[in-house]
Every structure is written in structure tokens, then in C-alpha cells.
Amino acid sequence: MATEAQGEEAGGLVFHPMDQFIVEPFFGEGAVAWYTITNATFWMALAVLTTFALLVLGTSRRSIIPTRMQSVAELAYGFVYKMVEDICGKEGVKYFPYIMTLFMFIVTANFLGLIPTAFSPTSHFAVTVVLALAVFLTVTVLGFVKNGTAFLGLFWVASAPLALRPVLAIIELISYFVRPVSHSIRLAGNIMAGHAVIKVFAGFAAIAVISPASIVAITAMYGLEVLVAFIQAYVFTILACVYLKDALHPGH
Amino acid sequence: MATETNSAGLTDAAAGVDHAASAPGMPQLDFSTWGNQIFWLVLALLATYFILSRVALPRIGAVLAERQGTITNDIAAAEDLKARAIEAEAAYDKALIDARAEAQLIVTKARADIQGDLDAAIAMADAEIAAKSAESEKAIADIRASAMENVKEVAKDTAQEIVAVLGGTADAGTVETAVTARMKG
């Protein structure tokens, strides 16, 4: 509302593509303390509830011949389970609930964020950095606990010529520590960019001549964002699996 | 960027919210909200993890395993039924072959029986015919013998009569001997 008023006041095109990402208290107004229930809290809670509805309420009948909801739940289960099993092997299946938690949270948050006027928790670096760091720290700790110092073999490419190995070790080390950065920025960046672009196109809709093209563009972008919502959740999950595989089986 | 920053500041001002840190224009970089988001994110992730690991995943896993089991059982049952069908077909074929062989046997036996009866009947008829013809032959022989005897009698009598007519006295014994001798010759 405030945005529109601003636009009219300025008497021209005013874009506020980033306003949709502002974290503000869900009830009333005021400062955002760590415990405040904010719009981010609300949409995260909705993501949890959606996960619950899909995976628990949807399968409550435990039918041999599944209902539609149960089919989707089973599909999600099979999708992530197969991913974990294919990439990490049999030992990785133990960590399937963690991977599934990541996937379900990201995919539901992404899709809920596509509802008009919704808020996407996954468009915030605060969220994706925590998710990526959780994966990074788990994988690093797990790698040392499982393999001891042999985990450092990940950085020492034994198949390369001896002279090249120190150089490769530095490169590997850098790439290892860049992982959580790219892992988190990829997800938040994709979601944020998509939502911002839609908002920019929506801003153009204020001009009567351009508005049809703008609406077509919004529709097209929205379709793309539906894909991105799933693909980014998939990419985040599959990368988590790949990193987990490094912890379970270091070496190339 | 400058416009954006400016307008964001204005918006916040209009909303009556003091967001000093949102000045850079990217709410993502407003670190004052990070603590809030991280706190609720950790809570959300824990909730999701407990929902998944305690209820959802074991249940879905069980349903999938049960379905796999049912399918395996059904396939096994279907294979069993198929094997039984093949067995039944084999039994049917065997029964058919047996029945055919038996029918053949019965036909052969019946033919042999009929042939035997026929042979016996023919033999009996032959024997009867033989007996009848032998009897007839005997009768003919008797008749022939009696006819010869009669002829002999007639000849003797005739000879005696002829002798008597010629005026001789005919000794019966002589005449008989003579006639017998002549007839032999």
C-alpha cells in the first residue's frame, strides 16, 4: 500500500522490487527482536505445516493403493531416498531423514513463496547460510569422525603427479571452503532474483500501454519460477548429498 | 540504487518502522533481522526433522515395503496359479491321450470278440453242415445198399420165375448162387 502511495506521489514509475523481502513483525509493528513472530516466522511455520499435511495427514490411511496426496508423499520420499542412496551409497541411507528435512523445508518454502503477496524465507541469506553451514559443518565433523585424518586425503589428489599435488591441495582447500558460500548464495540468489524480476515487471504494469506485455512477462516469469522453486530445492539437496558422500568416502 | 535506498527509507518511515539497517536496499543484508530468522529457522527445521523422523518417514517406508510385499506375493501367487494351470493342462492332455488309447483298445477288443464269435459261428455251421452231409451220405448209401439188395431180390425172383416159366424146376439155392455170381461179375 505504502509503495503505491509513494509511486503516485512521485508521479512516475517507482520500483520497490526488494520491499517484498522486508522482515517485519507479523502482529502489530515495532522492532524485530530475535523472538518476534515475523512474516518470516509465519511462512516458515506454514512450510512446516505443509510438510506435516503432505507427509503425515496425506499418508494417514496407509493405503496399499495410494490416494493422490499419499502418492505425492511417496513420490517425494522415493525421490530423495533414491538420491541419497545413489550418491552416498548404502551407508548414506542413515542420513536420509536429515536430507529429507532439508529438501522438504526448502521445497515447501519455495512453493509457498510463489503465492502472490507471500514471503519467501529461502530468499534470505540468513536462512540459506544456516542451511548451508549446517550441511558444511555436519559433513566436516562427520568426515573427521568417520575417517580420522584420512579425511584430509580429500585435498591430496593421489592420482595427480607429485609436483602438482600441493597446488591442487590449495585449490581443493579453497573450493572446499567456498562450498557453503556458493551453496547458500545459489539458493537465496535464485529465489530473490526471480521474485524481484516479477516485481519489476509488475511495476511496469502501471503504464497502460505496456501492461499487457508486462502481464505476459509476469506469467512467463512465474512459470519459470515454479521450475526454479523445485530445481533449486533439488540442487541444494543433491549438493548436500554430494558433500555427504565426500565425508563418507573421501578421495576421488 | 540511490533511488531505491531513498524510497526504502521513505517506505519505512511511512510504515512507522525504524529500519536503520535496511538502508543498503537489500533487506537480506539487514543483519538486525538475522537473529530472528535464524531462531525461527532452527525451530522450523527441528519441527520438520521430528515430524519426518518420528512419524512420516517410518510410515511411508512401511507403506512402501508393505506394497512391495503385496506385489511380490501377488506375483508369486500368479506364478503358482499359472504353474497349476499348466499342470492341469498337462493332466488334461494326458487324460485325452489315455482315453484315446483306451478307446482304441476297446475297439480292437470288440473287433477281436466279434471276429471270435463269427469264427465260432462259422465253425459250428461248418460242423453242422458236415454232420448233415455225412448223415445224408449215409442215408444215400443205405438207400443205395437197399436198392442193390432190392435189385438182387428182384433178379433172383425174376430169374426163378423165368426158370419156372421155361419149364425147369428151379432150385432156389442154385438160382441164388448163380444170380449172385452174375451180379458180381
Automatic annotation (TrEMBL), chain A:
Protein's cellular compartments: Cell membrane; Membrane
Similarity field: Belongs to the ATPase A chain family.
Gene Ontology cellular-component annotations: plasma membrane; proton-transporting ATP synthase complex
Residue ranges crossing the lipid bilayer per the database entry: 40-59, 95-119, 125-145, 152-178, 198-219, 226-245
Signal peptide: none
InterPro entries for this protein: ATP_synth_F0_asu, ATP_synth_F0_asu_AS, ATP_synth_F0_asu_bact/mt, F0_ATP_A_sf
One GO MF term attached to the UniProt entry: proton-transporting ATP synthase activity, rotational mechanism
Origin superkingdom: Bacteria
Its job: Key component of the proton channel; it plays a direct role in the translocation of protons across the membrane.
Keywords in alphabetical order: ATP synthesis, Cell membrane, CF(0), Hydrogen ion transport, Ion transport, Membrane, Transmembrane, Transmembrane helix, Transport
Membrane topology: Multi-pass membrane protein
Protein name: ATP synthase subunit a
Entry coiled-coil feature ranges: none
Automatic annotation (TrEMBL), chain B:
GO molecular function, one term: proton-transporting ATP synthase activity, rotational mechanism
Name of the gene: atpF
InterPro entries, alphabetized: ATP_synth_b/b'su_bac/chlpt, ATP_synthase_B_chain
Chief location: membrane
Family stated for the protein in its record: Belongs to the ATPase B chain family.
Transmembrane segments: 38-57
Keywords: ATP synthesis, Cell membrane, CF(0), Hydrogen ion transport, Ion transport, Membrane, Transmembrane, Transmembrane helix, Transport
NCBIfam families: PRK13454.1 (NF009988)
Short name of any one Pfam family annotated for the protein: ATP-synt_B
Name of protein: ATP synthase subunit b
Subcellular location: Cell membrane; Endomembrane system
Topology in the lipid bilayer: Single-pass membrane protein
Entry-linked HAMAP family: ATP_synth_b_bprime
Subunit architecture: F-type ATPases have 2 components, F(1) - the catalytic core - and F(0) - the membrane proton channel. F(1) has five subunits: alpha(3), beta(3), gamma(1), delta(1), epsilon(1). F(0) has three main subunits: a(1), b(2) and c(10-14). The alpha and beta chains form an alternating ring which encloses part of the gamma chain. F(1) is attached to F(0) by a central stalk formed by the gamma and epsilon chains, while a peripheral stalk is formed by the delta and b chains.
Function comment: F(1)F(0) ATP synthase produces ATP from ADP in the presence of a proton or sodium gradient. F-type ATPases consist of two structural domains, F(1) containing the extramembraneous catalytic core and F(0) containing the membrane proton channel, linked together by a central stalk and a peripheral stalk. During catalysis, ATP synthesis in the catalytic domain of F(1) is coupled via a rotary mechanism of the central stalk subunits to proton translocation. Component of the F(0) channel, it forms part of the peripheral stalk, linking F(1) to F(0). The b'-subunit is a diverged and duplicated form of b found in plants and photosynthetic bacteria.
Species of the source: Sulfitobacter brevis
Superkingdom assignment: Bacteria
Gene Ontology annotations for the cellular component aspect, listed alphabetically: endomembrane system; plasma membrane; proton-transporting ATP synthase complex
